[in-house]
Amino acid sequence: MDLQPPRIGALLRQWRQRRRLSQLDLALAAETSARHLSCVETGRARPSREMVLRLSTALDVPLRERNALLLAAGYAPAYRESSLDDEDMAAVRSAVEVMLTAHEPYPAVLVDRCWNVLGANRGMAVLMDGVPERLLAPRPNVFRLALHPDGLAARLVNLSEVRTLFLDRLQRQVNASGDPELRALLDEVGRYPAPASDGAAGSDREPRRASPIEVPLQIRTPQGVLSMFSTMATFGAPADVTLSELAIELFYPLDEFTSAALRTRPDLDLNPASGPMLAAWQSS
């Protein structure tokens, strides 16, 4: 006799514990009873489709995992997963192209949930200069590009600070999502060699000026050390798994020197006809 609880109950309990909620807290948020929730988690009751969706919303479960919860409970997925190339995603592609192009000459990149690069503008060349082809194929990954010793890490003045920031960010995402692909990425980049000390590869580091950004991205270039920070843009109220997992990272200069250097890069062609690199790493 199989005494193991149904998978849906175990999954809901994992999400509740990941969010550090008691059964009572979750029951109140989902407008149900703690007794019913307990029965669902232990397999004594099967939740309705509506209840699975209400619990998923209360737990802030990503759309991809909401579909997994529905399947585990015996229901069809509620959210479709489109390709970025689909006709229905034309408006999204157009919006992304506008954002990437409008942000030039500053770098901007489109990423998926695992930080794989789906597109970039021409300003990203300043971050990808000298990166070997093996880190760009079949698809670049932001964390590999930044932290691999053969990637951008070799040109980062403050690699120790950036490495700590990136690993902490990725760890928080793993904790919040439980995503096995993100966990594998964290395990991989966490094994990259840590720097002995910042600035060891050159004498161009200057004392940090007062700044509202705790850890800027400080990069050695032929023009000098460029300092940047970034913001993230996501799509509001997504009803598609792919759309819910897209994000655009926009980099901005932290000082006037960096702004001027990015605007006058001799290798940056700002001819609108050349277009952004949106299609460069899209899946086939």
UniProtKB/TrEMBL annotation:
InterPro entries: Cro/C1-type_HTH (IPR001387), Lambda_DNA-bd_dom_sf (IPR010982), MLTR_LBD (IPR041413). GO terms for molecular function: DNA binding. Transmembrane segments: none annotated. Residues 12-66 form the HTH cro/C1-type domain. This is Helix-turn-helix protein. It comes from the Bacteria.
